[in-house]
Design brief:
It contains five helices and six strands. About 12% of the residues have low confidence. It is an alpha/beta fold. Strand 5 and strand 6 form a beta hairpin.
Length: 187
């Protein structure tokens, strides 16, 4: 073989090996989500306690992996705000209380968009605070007709399928509790 043919073979193979090596390096040791069917004798709370990554339930986050969070089959509320925003500061103790109280029943997260702005790029966030609501089955939350809170519904441009349910502005503890009940959470 001449050198040109040999280089045409070696360079692509080397690139593939480098990319594979980087992927393996980045992904080795990371936890994976396994789908587990809960039997009636093993409650959801025990499943969450024994099979979770504690970081998934911490209130303040620097990133959101919706696929991982949806894997817990719990309602999800993600609040996008900032630690220095006045309405966000009013919501902070409410989010902290509900995050601790609802462990095993719902996932409540907070993203500081001034520190982690790129996270909001995947969501239709226009103002802060704004909250995104996702049902336990991973679908966007659709509020009941009697819910007295204004929500914005966002759809995919190409399929018109419901993509996100968002509330813009602050919420009180009572309002968030009412939403959680509407999402199927037993208090």
């Amino acid at each position: 073989m001449d050198k040109k043919k040999l280089l045409k073979i070696i360079i692509p193979i080397s690139l593939v090996l480098i990319v594979a090596g980087i992927w393996i390096f980045k992904n080795v040791g990371k936890g994976s989500v396994s789908i587990v069917s809960l039997s009636e004798d093993k409650g959801l709370e025990n499943f969450v306690k024994s099979n979770n990554n504690e970081e998934d339930f911490v209130l303040e986050a620097t990133s959101i992996d919706l696929d991982v969070l949806k894997g817990y089959n719990l309602p999800i509320i993600i609040d996008f705000g900032a630690n220095s925003c006045i309405p966000c500061k009013k919501m902070a103790p409410v989010l902290k209380t509900l995050n601790a109280e609802m462990r095993g029943k719902a996932i409540i997260k907070f993203i500081d968009v001034w520190k982690n702005g790129a996270v909001a790029n995947d969501f239709p966030i226009q103002v802060i605070p704004s909250q995104v609501f996702i049902n336990a089955d991973g679908t966007p939350y659709v509020p009941s007709d009697d819910m007295q809170i204004k929500f914005d519904m966002y759809s995919h441009k190409d399929t018109y399928e419901h993509a996100f349910t968002v509330h813009q502005g602050g919420l009180t503890e009572d309002q968030i509790r009412a939403i959680l009940v509407d999402m199927g959470v037993d208090e």
